Amino acid sequence: MADADDQYYPMVDMDTCIACGACALSAPQVFDYNDEGLAYVTIDNNRGTIAVPAPFVSGMLDAYDGCPSASIQIQKSAFNNCQHK
Ligand code: SF4
């Protein structure tokens, strides 16, 4: 699935995120943490509606691969549902 030339729409499942703090180390332009340390996607407030800008795709995929709870979901088209932080 991982092809750095493709467009990716990431979204964090904040119900399963364990607030480990890893994803924003790999992709600080894409992920940040709320007051509880749970991660969310900054570029669209975790709605999964905006594709990651090309320069940040590689880091986002590293975060996806490294998430210990598999909480980072990615699609090649926008998510329809909406999950707020
Ligand atoms: S790497 Fe996964 S578990 Fe860790 S903060 Fe990010 S989304 Fe949460």
From TrEMBL:
Keyword Electron transport among UniProt keywords: yes
Cofactor requirement: [4Fe-4S] cluster
Domain annotation 4Fe-4S ferredoxin-type: ranges: 8-36
Keyword field contains Electron transport: yes
Keywords, in A-Z order: 4Fe-4S, Electron transport, Iron, Iron-sulfur, Metal-binding, Transport
Matching InterPro entries: 3Fe4S_ferredoxin, 4Fe4S_Fe-S-bd, ET_Ferredoxin
Pfam families: Fer4_13 (PF13370)
Top-level taxon of origin: Bacteria
Gene Ontology MF annotations: 4 iron, 4 sulfur cluster binding; electron transfer activity; iron ion binding
Physiological role: Ferredoxins are iron-sulfur proteins that transfer electrons in a wide variety of metabolic reactions.
Protein name: Ferredoxin
